[in-house]
Amino acid sequence: MDNIKPIIDPSRPKVYIETYGCQMNVNDSEVILSILQDAGYALTEDIEEADVILANTCSIRDNAEQRIWGRIDQFKIKKKKRPGVVIGIVGCMAERLKDELLKAVDIVAGPDAYRSLPKLLEAVTPDSPQIDVLLSHEETYADISPVRLDKNGISAFISIMRGCNNVCSYCIVPYTRGRERSRDAHTIVREARELWENGYKEVTLLGQNVDSYQWEDVNFAKLLEMVAAVNSELRVRFSTSHPKDISDEVIYTMARHENICRHIHLPVQSGSSVMLEKMRRKYDREWYLERVEKIRSVMPDCGITTDVIAGFSGETQQDHQDTLSLMEQVVFDSAFMFAYSERPGTLASKKYPDDIPYEVKTARLNEIIALQGRMSLKSNEKEIGKVMTVMVEGPSKKNPAELCGRAGSNKMCVFPSRGEKPGDIVQVRVASVTSATLICERVE
Length: 444
Ligand code: SAH
Ligand code: SF4
Ligand code: F3S
What we know:
The protein is α/β, with parallel strands linked by helices. 34% of the residues lie in helices and 23% in strands. It is built from 14 helices and 21 strands. 44% of the residues are buried.
């Protein structure tokens, strides 16, 4: 019996990870934990007992990075009390700042260097911090089974590609994540099948621009079809779609498969064609509106959400009005809205001054947020009386006698419980709404 390891092995070093940024980072943390588990580490959710503290970081806006610097200071206080603790910064900020971060922490690893984490952890000493920020043209972590962080065990992310080739002028992602590469389609389908067999009910396919997925002769529409075919009851979602690339073929593929959720996240960034040109988005206002029309003509019930940037370089009051008028015309279900933050090294930082005063940016952003609040309410009011098919996520936060879950359109519904469990599918009718939630009754 001596050679059988106990399941909880106190001799294993414990690793704790915090995740910032986008869904791809959440999935990357799952990949990192899988790699470290295979290398003999145990995972912990308690930072106080961790031997290794990792932060998987984001560089998309300056405030995202400022937050991490604050966290690093807090980690260092812990290290003072327990000097053996190793602090590692991984992800986009590690890639962007490289050696600058190495002065502050023990390990720095970029998004394509996660396989070397065990080696870096082995080599690290107080006098020799370790860094690997090499970007790769091939790495997709295709063979790694991510540890799943979703506590319910019903919904999982699958990264289908990495990097981005789009060089939007304001964006740091191409510099932190490198060239775009698509993952072997068979490994994606296999992962979806394994998830389904393990009780998962929903997968979200992730990429910075899923519409440019291309592996051998499999494009994104074909991949969607392959994943939807894993099981007709597996709910399939995806993010993010780029307006310049979302094809009719993808729209028709969604329409053909009931289990592909009717939701498209289609970041517009600005309603002004002048701004879109400077942003290098490669579409204009008319093109964007045409894509929305096409989606709605094929799938009238399709949820459309977006991202908006306020106060990009040179944005005039008219450009801003164009954004507001586009939002009013489209009536997005919801939106992520940001003030422009200049990122060092991007094309915009070299070519276009960050010249909109802070107060103007903030005022415009607030106007955009207020308008979206009204649009979300309007979009939700249209659902009153409709029957929704919802996957139960768990108890509603406000009232434990109620459940919550998302409709296909990604709208959040709350409804009376009849004892269902997370992952169960229920039919509910929308009785009333707020700008954030559909308040539903049970359908007999
Ligand atoms: N790949 C996705 C978006 C990834 S980043 C796409 O192309 O749509 C998520 C969002 O962050 C972007 O859609 C944009 O709205 C915002 N963003 C990116 N860079 C930014 C910057 N420098 N300042 C403010 N917001 C930014
Ligand atoms: Fe950034 Fe543009 Fe790539 Fe999106 S498509 S990640 S905004 S460069
Ligand atoms: Fe942030 Fe990197 Fe994602 S910069 S948004 S974590 S790709």
